[in-house]
Write a structure and sequence with these properties.
heterodimer, B: alpha/beta, globular, binds adenosine-5'-diphosphate, binds magnesium ion
Chain lengths: 401, 262
């Protein structure tokens, strides 16, 4: 019976190809939107997760100012190197504490110039960021203590300023400071927010403070917690210590923030989630509209085929059989919409991931769910017309012109 | 007869309709007693049947005649279990049809009745073969059996070579023959035909009547047929005349009269 109903439904749809297509357009758009959004969202989230993981696990980022959006913080009274030292001394179970300060500067080599981010650090930076030098070396203690004019550069800076030439041992100019390249960092690639992580120049913090910023400010302290130790506890300890050092009284808000990985991830994926929710609403609306379209066309179909229904009822079809026939037709219609939507989404989201440079992660579960959902739309919106058909009076229906 | 019909019953319907194991051969096939039918309510109501008494036995060929509006079609709808009496009783093989649910009546039609309408009522854009197969689908017959039986039925109405044609490619007479094939493909107990020749010229009409006579004689299918035309009624062995919602006359034709129709 179901098989017969399926064959009948397919034939009926073939008879009205154009009408069938227009009917399912809403479902197509709805399903395509859902799958595309989940695929793009999934790719973006995966990218964020990977990048956050590449920052090294158990990382805490301490910035001045109150918590805010991407790259947040920055305002408020700056830290001093002594703050980082105090954290390293007083907070237990830390693997590394890296103080840093940054500025955008134009780096020049010969005739080439490149605007990049110059960051003052010490060797703890390599520890907490889980980042190593691909060629050359890290800083040595005397360079750090004396504030020598040496630098470690990122892969992008190397490519832009030195091209194929050997950077190690050569000089790079930042304003009036000429510093010797002693190392090149291993490449990390694009970050989620579209910025290039390899576009940086590292100087010893003291060199940076004396020659670039001209002050003692430290804007960012990155801390990595020992494997197995609690980041929550470290976070709480750091907050308590800094409140004390910055003289923040009992109920006053912090003028700095300590973010852990989860918060960093959440902050970075926040926009994706808003977008996902928005697209989800669009998808829901178009599925609803698509369902109403199917209900409408099925009602038209029932009216057009009243006589056929009368014949079937007279011949001995029971209500359930007529109901099944029309319900199957509605479900076939909507599932076709689902399948077309899925095909569109697979192609479309692939194109979008290439364009947006996020990984392409097609979730098979969402495809199955989208398909089932489109079929369910057929059942829900096809039920009323099908029931109308099944309940027709055979005598009336046979008399229908 | 009864056992053949029971044999056709694949859904245990016989048990549902026919109480116990009591032999039904004593009950007439069709028994209308004091059947009335009132359409509408109150002042606008219309009494189409005013107490019809009619008994038809298995194997009969009955023509129903009467002026327009005398209640013939209303009575046929009741006989066909498409409608139920307002009062009085209709027993089909002893079963009180008035007491059956809608779906039970549908199953009764499926298993015991065949219909031929004035307007053919074939599914458009559907081949003759598929039209004839339709009742077998609802009986749950497997596809190969359906094809074979539908082809045989088409051959029996002289349309062996027309299986793939759709109604729009067939003449009126051919369409009505497809409709007859569809009605007899299930080997029903009763074939009900409401003005089957009404849309045909008399030559085409006679072809249809020849077919009905053949099925009545050779397969023992009971036929109840409404007609305006005495020529067509002449093929039947019994003529029932309706007038103003009641049976006005009911006459058996003699063997001699049958021998020379019209
Ligand atoms: N569904 C209906 N609603 C109201 N009146 C009806 C209906 N069906 C038939 N009638 C009336 O019942 C009477 C008998 O109709 P019908 O049985 O079709 O007559 P016949 O077939 O003998 O010409 C007519 O007056 C007709 O108008
Ligand atoms: Mg009539």
């Amino acid at each position: 019976m179901l098989w017969n109903a399926l064959l009948l439904a397919l034939r009926e749809l073939r008879r009205n190809v154009m009408r069938s297509f227009l009917t399912i357009l809403g479902i197509v758009i709805g399903v395509a939107a859902v799958i595309t959004m989940v695929t793009i969202g999934g790719g973006a989230t995966l990218q964020v997760t990977q990048q956050v993981a590449s920052l090294g696990s158990n990382l805490l980022m301490i910035r001045t100012g109150q918590r805010m959006g991407p790259g947040g913080g920055g305002g408020g009274v700056a830290f001093r190197l002594a703050d980082a030292d105090a954290i390293a001394r007083d907070v237990g179970a830390l693997a590394g504490v890296a103080a840093s300060a940054s500025q955008n500067q134009t780096a020049i080599v010969g005739n080439e110039s490149w605007s990049t981010q110059v960051t003052g650090v010490d060797n703890q930076f390599f520890v907490v960021r889980n980042w190593s030098v691909a060629s050359g070396r890290q800083f040595i203690d005397s360079e750090l203590r004396a504030g020598k004019a040496v630098c470690v550069i990122g892969a992008t800076v190397r490519a832009k300023l030195f091209g194929a030439a050997e950077p190690l041992g050569n000089n790079l100019r930042l304003q009036k400071l000429s510093c010797q390249v002693i190392g090149v960092l291993e490449a990390k690639g694009q970050s989620t927010m579209g910025s290039d992580q390899d576009d940086l120049v590292l100087l010893p913090l003291r060199t940076f403070q004396r020659r670039i910023s001209g002050n003692q400010d430290v804007r960012l302290i990155q801390v990595s917690v020992q494997e197995g130790a609690s980041t929550e506890k470290a976070q709480a300890d750091i907050e308590r210590l800094l409140r004390e050092r910055r003289h923040i009284a009992g109920s006053k808000e912090d003028d700095f923030n300590v973010m852990d990985m989860k918060e960093i991830t959440r902050m970075l994926t926040g926009t994706t989630q808003v977008l996902t929710a928005l697209l989800g609403a669009v998808a829901a609306v178009s599925l609803l509209v698509g369902g109403i379209g199917i209900m409408n066309i099925m009602l038209v179909s029932v009216t057009e085929r009243t006589r056929e229904i009368g014949i079937r009822l007279a011949i001995g079809a029971v209500e359930r059989e007529v109901l099944t026939q029309f319900l199957v037709e509605a479900v076939v219609l909507s599932s076709f919409g689902g399948v077309i939507g899925i095909a569109l989404a697979i192609a479309g989201s692939w194109g979008l991931t290439v364009y947006l440079e996020v990984p392409y992660v097609l979730n098979p579960a969402i495809i199955v769910i989208a398909f089932l959902f489109s079929a369910a739309v057929g059942v829900i919106f096809g039920y009323f017309p099908a029931r109308k058909a099944a309940r027709l009076d055979p005598i009336e229906a046979l008399r229908h012109e | 007869m009864g056992s053949r019909l029971r044999g056709n019953d694949s859904t245990g319907l016989t048990r549902a309709f026919l109480p116990g194991d009591c032999p039904m051969s004593e009950s007439p096939l069709i028994a209308l007693a004091g059947v009335t039918k009132i359409f509408g309510a109150g002042a606008a109501s219309m009494q189409a049947l005013r107490g019809v008494n009619l008994t038809i036995n298995a194997g009969e060929f009955v023509a129903i005649m009467g002026p327009s509006g005398s209640g013939k079609s209303t009575c046929m709808n009741i006989l066909g279990c498409l409608d139920t009496p307002s009062s009085g009783s209709y027993r089909f093989k002893g079963v009180d049809v008035g007491a059956l649910e809608r779906d039970q009546r549908a199953r009764l039609r499926r298993h015991y009745l065949g219909f031929v309408f004035q307007g053919y009522n074939l599914l458009s854009r559907t081949s003759a073969l598929e039209n004839v197969e339709l009742p077998l689908i609802y009986r749950g017959a497997p596809a190969n059996e359906r094809h074979a039986r539908a082809e045989r039925a088409l051959a029996a109405v002289g349309l062996g070579g027309w299986a793939d044609h759709t109604p729009s490619e067939l003449s009126g007479g051919q369409q009505q023959r497809v409709a007859i094939a569809r009605a007899i493909v299930t080997e029903p107990a009763v074939l009900l035909a409401d003005e089957p020749t009404g849309n045909l010229d008399s030559a085409r009409g006679r072809e249809i009547m020849e077919l009905l006579t053949t099925f009545n004689r050779d397969q023992g299918i009971t036929i109840v047929m409404v007609t305006h035309e005495p020529d067509m009624a002449a093929y039947a062995r019994r003529v029932v005349r309706f007038f103003d919602g009641v049976v006005a006359s009911d006459e058996q034709r003699t063997a001699q009269a049958l021998a020379e129709p019209a």
